[in-house]
Amino acid sequence: MNHYFTNNKNLKSDINKISVIVLGKSYSLFTDNGVFSKKALDFGTRLLIESLPLPEMSGKVLDVGCGYGPIGLFVKSETDCEVDMVDINLRALHLAKIGARHNHLSVNIYESDAYSNVKPSYDYIITNPPIRAGKEKVYEILMGASDFLTSKGQLWFVMRKNQGVKSTLVDMGKCYNVSIKKKDKGFYVVCATKKEKIVDND
């Protein structure tokens, strides 16, 4: 079940276009075998997108684990932000690029295993982390975001209650100020900001 965060060259390709309506606006995405939620936009991702403070967003945005692109492409379509989108799955990146061209959106899409090819810093990092990749990878994305955010930057993510969101929030509280922005059907949308470092002048 780890197909959507790895590359399986032997998996047959069958690209399909799906129509997605978010916040009353329609856009098209392209999916295929071997990517997450290929048949329709999943509930968690939709909830995350609909919870973002789109009217006030500006600056640079990073979509980590972008898949075929629903988050990054919608943010770009609704804001003036500079949007980067990364994933380890090459097929997903190819689909995201097709979606960007189809929707006439200028975004930067490239391969990166979490932040391995990412350079700081971003005003927003947004992710629906790959739970099936395991806790270590999820924490690499969530905890690692701190090194790639501006001082006032925000990390936005979605996680289900039964996937350990409460313990994750406790762990994140060590280096972030965390705020639950929305709960629906067991999903939590969370915004996290970096805690200010205490400077000892003595």
Describe this structure in words.
By secondary structure, this protein is an alpha/beta fold. It has a single domain (3-194), classed as 3-Layer(aba) Sandwich (Rossmann fold), CATH 3.40.50. It has helices at residues 43-51, 70-78, 90-102, 135-144, 165-172; strands spanning 16-22, 25-31, 60-64, 82-87, 108-111, 122-127, 149-160, 176-184, 187-194. The strands form two sheets. The protein has a seven-stranded mixed beta sheet, with helices on both faces. A two-stranded antiparallel ribbon has the order 1-2. Strand 1 and strand 2 form a beta hairpin. Helix 1 (43-51) runs parallel beside helix 2 (70-78). The longest helix has 13 residues, at 90-102. The mean pLDDT is 90.
* Counted beta strands: 9
Our measurement of the CA-to-CA distance between the termini, rounded to an integer number of angstroms, reads 53 Å
Structural class by helix and strand composition: alpha/beta
Counted by DSSP, the helix tally is 5
Element-by-element helix/strand order: EEHEHEHEEHEHEE
CATH-level-2 architecture: 3-Layer(aba) Sandwich
Share in β-strands: 25-35%
Q: What's the short story on this structure?
A:
By secondary structure, this protein is α/β, with parallel strands linked by helices. It contains 5 helices and 9 strands.
